[in-house]
Amino acid sequence: MSQLTHLDSQGHAHMVDVTDKSVSQREARAEAVVSMSAECMALLIDGKHPKGDVFAVARIAGIQAAKRTWELIPLCHPLMLTSVKVELQALPEQQRVRIETRAKLAGQTGVEMEALTAASVAALTLYDMCKAVDKGMVIEHIRLLEKSGGKSGHWQISALEEQA
Description:
Layout: E1 24-35, H1 38-46, H2 54-67, H3 69-72, E2 83-91, E3 96-107, H4 112-130, E4 138-148, E5 155-156, H5 159-163
Antiparallel strand pairs: 1-3, 1-4, 2-3, 4-5
EC number: 4.6.1.17
InterPro entries: MoaC (IPR023045), MoaC_bact/euk (IPR047594), MoaC_sf (IPR036522), MoCo_biosynth_MoaA/MoaC (IPR050105), Mopterin_CF_biosynth-C_dom (IPR002820)
Pathway: Cofactor biosynthesis; molybdopterin biosynthesis
């Protein structure tokens, strides 16, 4: 098990010094799932939601959030992301929207928090825009799916876990 590195030798929280880490290509994928009523799902699929293109707004919100993760999550490094993607997929048979995000950069630290923040904020935006129709929506499964690059290399959730 790796040690928590956000503590200094006195046990105080601090930002990890990445000065001596090598620059490498780093990428992370994350997801969030939003469950909703059949009525809300129908409005999204038919493009008749009273607030317009909910998916487009949630996509932009996720991208903006990834770029500002360092302002939202204490001890995160400000990063110059080279790419952020936010994809929303309606799953009407399950009454869910699946959000998958991807963050990339060439840098000295990973982008897992940026991908997770993008997924979280996209899900919250979807909730905000749809709450007038369905206040009972549930945001769940916010999780890292995959990360690559850096000293720890590649990690990916198992295919069975990803389908769950």
